[in-house]
């Protein structure tokens, strides 16, 4: 494909996702524009990202600190006003790099990371919004804190002065996600948190019906990723 058709395809995919979001907002009787679309650009290079920026998308997400450090400083310099969200697991030794680069962190999931982020924010002088990731399906291999550990982790994060704005989840694969979205919504409400980061390419409309404030959409905007890169 030449550059023009890439750009066209990206703009069309963005329009389709925005239409889906608008439809779900309307069905759920939620205000138009109340859901934030985070374009998940992991594994995609600057050439693939530029057409989405040209089409007006300004909020992007990555799952690896190093990959984001390699790609985004140049793109941001060229396109002011971009917000960058970290949606992948964060090692404590990368907390400073993450705080320096990202505007929001969706993967706060343990006590040691609360400490590392609080220290990093004090040192760097930036305070990215934090979402606590909940292991909503109690899966062994998944990131996120156990539901039972959420109250203590949230209290610790608030005591440490972290700007906790909401909860995030990735429901189990290949099962109906709605019950998990409903549960995350309830947990957020119980704890007085406004943000619900939930819903991906296959289920963002369902997530919006159930209260998502931030949807994380990759494949529906960029096309398929090579599986080995996830
Ligand atoms: C990759 C990823 C997404 C986007 O997934 P798609 O199915 O491509 O939309 C969303 N959230 C997280 C945490 C991810 O790692």
From TrEMBL:
Protein name listed in UniProt: Pyridoxal phosphate homeostasis protein
GO MF terms, alphabetically ordered: pyridoxal phosphate binding
UniProt function note: Pyridoxal 5'-phosphate (PLP)-binding protein, which is involved in PLP homeostasis.
Organism name: Sphingobium nicotianae
Residue(s) carrying N6-(pyridoxal phosphate)lysine: 42
Keyword annotations of the record: Pyridoxal phosphate
Keyword Kinase attributed: no
InterPro entries: Ala_racemase_N, PLP-binding_barrel, PyrdxlP_homeostasis
Domain Alanine racemase N-terminal: 16-226
Cofactor(s) the protein needs: pyridoxal 5'-phosphate
Source species, domain of life: Bacteria
Family listed: Belongs to the pyridoxal phosphate-binding protein YggS/PROSC family.
